[in-house]
Structure formats: C-alpha cells, structure tokens
C-alpha cells in the first residue's frame, strides 16, 4: 500500500509562489495516477491537478490552469505541485492522492490513497 506525505505548505502573499511536495513510500509514483486536491472548511474537496501513469499526461482544473504545474520525480518517488501567481481563493488544505488506475477526470472518489494534507494560506 502506498503511503503519501505532503510538505511545502505555508503562508504567502497574493502573487507569490509555493511548491508542494508529496513523498511516496510503499509504491512507485510512476505506476500510479496521482493528483492534488484542496479543501476549505464546509466545502467539498476540489480537484486541482492530475498526472496520469505512463506518459504523464496532465489535467488541470480551470481555476488553476496556467498558474499551477503538476510533476513527478521518479528517482525521488515524489509528486510536486508548483503554484505561481497565487490568489487568496487558493487558500485551502492541499492533499496528495493516488490510484493505480487511469480514470478520466478528477474526482476524489476515484482515489484510494491520501496524504494528511498541508495548509496553504494566501493573503491579499
């Protein structure tokens, strides 16, 4: 079973950047479809970005397209989310998720493995 541990969250001013990391153990990131989700209290978990197995095709939510980049380092067995031009509405707890299957779209219910989350706060 793959275990996921996120890091890299913090507080930043609007327009700034952060890079989130998700270290995997017990499984190889290249063999999983992996994604980043975010959640604010009282709202549903929202899909942010996804990277598929194999060739590494990516998918982004419209709200982050052009600002966020998902990537993985197979040698380090780590998933990343580079977040640029951050906005206050990006404030949330960010979660890393994995599934051994390739599903179309970005639904939380498709992912069986989750990290504990890392908080991102963007101030105006």
Order of helices and strands: EEEEEEEEEEE
Main beta sheet? 7 strands, mixed
Would you count the extended β strands for me? 11
Strand content: over 45%
Q: Write down the overall geometry.
A: globular
| Structural class estimated from helices and strands | mainly beta
Enumerate the spans where pLDDT stays under 50 for 5 or more consecutive residues: none
Helix share bin: under 10%
CA(first)-CA(last) distance: 40 Å
Helix segment tally: 0
Mean pLDDT, nearest integer?
Answer: 95
The radius of gyration is 13 Å
Notes on the protein architecture:
With 124 residues, the protein is an all-beta fold. 0% of the residues lie in helices and 49% in strands. It is built from no helices and 11 strands. Strands 2, 4, 5, 6, 9, 10 and 11 form a 7-stranded mixed sheet that branches. A 4-stranded antiparallel sheet has the order 1-3-8-7, with no helix packed on it. A hairpin with a 6-residue loop joins strand 5 and strand 6.
Key features of this structure:
single chain; 124 residues; mainly beta; four-stranded antiparallel beta sheet; 49% strand
Secondary structure topology:
Elements: E1 3-7, E2 10-13, E3 18-25, E4 33-39, E5 46-51, E6 58-60, E7 68-73, E8 78-83, E9 92-99, E10 113-114, E11 118-123
Parallel strand pairs: 2-11
Antiparallel strand pairs: 1-3, 3-8, 4-5, 4-9, 5-6, 7-8, 9-10, 9-11
What would a concise description of this structure say?
The protein has 124 residues and is mainly β.
């Amino acid at each position: 079973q793959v275990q996921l541990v996120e890091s890299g969250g913090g507080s930043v001013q609007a327009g700034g950047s952060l890079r989130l990391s998700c270290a995997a153990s017990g499984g190889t990131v290249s063999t999983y479809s992996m994604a980043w989700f975010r959640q604010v209290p009282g709202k549903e978990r929202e899909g942010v970005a996804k990277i598929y197995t194999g060739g590494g095709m990516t998918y982004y939510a419209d709200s982050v397209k052009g600002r966020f980049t998902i990537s993985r380092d197979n040698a380090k067995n780590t998933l990343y989310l580079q977040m640029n031009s951050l906005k206050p509405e990006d404030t949330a707890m960010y979660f890393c998720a994995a599934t051994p299957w390739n599903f179309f779209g970005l639904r939380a219910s498709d992912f069986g493995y989750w990290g504990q989350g890392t908080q991102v706060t963007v101030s105006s």
